[in-house]
Predict the 3D structure of the following.
Amino acid sequence: MVRFKFVILIFLLALPFLVIAQDSSPSEVSETLEHPRATLTTFFTAMNASPPDLATAATTLDLSEVPPLAQETQGESTSIQLFGIFNRTKFIELDQFSNDPNAEEVTINLSISINRRIQDLPPIIIRKNADGAWRFSAQTVASVPATWKLVKDQPVLGELKDIRPYESVYARWANENLSGSWLQPGFLGVINWKWPTLILFLLGSYICGLIIRILAKLIIRLKTGRIGSELSKSTLDSAGNGFSLLTNGLIFGYLAKQLSLPPDPKAAVLFLALVITTVGMGWLAMAVVQFLINRLTPKIADNERAEKLFLPILTNLGRLLVIGLTLLFFLGRIGFDITGLIAGLGIGGLVVALAAKDSVENFFGSLTLIFEMPFQIGDWIIADGIEGIVEEISIRSTTIRTFHDSTILVPNSKFIAKPVENMGRRRFRRLKTTLGITYDATPEQVEQFVQKLRTYILEHPKTWDDKINIAFNDYGPSSLNILMIVFIDADNYNDELLIREELLLGVMKIAEECDVHFAFPTQRMIIDGPASPGLAQRPQ
């Protein structure tokens, strides 16, 4: 049991380290974004690399107005388009830009010649953000796609590098084989052919998920040997369903990114893919955790009853852990500041704890049941006036079946605040009774009766020899009282009743052998006095 408690303690203590506390000190600005010149240098160095470092180039863009789920792909495509705009409209001399972190915002004016007429383009603005870093402004990021459409057919200046936005095989096929309204923007600005393509992607990824589910279940059965054969159908089904959804979401999200959708529709589609992926990941993780709990609990629990106690509590704790981590993953992916959220729990957690006082008490009550183990499944307990057999223990409450065959749901906090008497933990069960024999018994008979009782109880295999008290100890109103205190060795209440019956029947047989009789309360009424006046004498 000590080993098991140690494992649980490590498990609980490790939970705070699953998240990273937010540093209260403000973060320093990266040298790559320290001033306007550094930002431009970082951007052009990344784009001129072979292959282009699109992730680094995207850090120079203010993507705060782009939906979080679309920021990664939008940042890469915007970097390529912005680089193409510069290389078709203006030579950039880095030395002409300020290296002062506190400089004014930088505006780069662009123009192109169309049919020998100069046309001004939306300016490129580099601005200092709230975090102290210099980036291409959100206004610039929003205007880049429209500007690219105006300049994409212009020649590259001099010997500058030319990088064109990636065109997927689906886009090339559509441009070569479709025409008319199929190639025109439609609902939410999405080109019409892309909507049915998205539906096909969703159906195709779903079919792939089903196929992978079947293959995964087969491989688990074949490759894991005896362990795989021990897996229940429900565990396999849960793992298969989770793996299927996870695969479905990942494939659909990957294919959707290839369609170069506008930011808002792209964010909506990727949100759907993320929901499918997150549900699948959580479902799969829950199946794995349940399998580990089911497999490890019998090995580290002391007995079957301890296993029945720990298994439901650990299962609930495992589910809460998986749900919590899955929720944190989902919130992080859609743009929530997880470290800030966790740091805010310092104050918010106090408010929640006060608002959910009973739930917190019940949770700590369940921890008390794990570490202290005041009772187990199947024990007969008496707590706060409630008496019965423990049937189930969960994180919030304990189910007790009373001797009236009803069930009572007791909050676990009761077991912290109130004393618990565990009748199932008794090493021996006490039998205390007074044997009253009639006054016509002789001293020799009483002595013989008591001695035979002692011998019988001492020789009985289910009594505690060191705790036997049998003696003639009192004169009752209608009997000679013999006190008998015996401790019975019984594992449960049913065994106790059977042994009590056997002992009491043995007492009756010994009384018969010794020719003594059990007394019962009797009264003798004696009428003695003068006759009442007026009463006629009974004739003789």
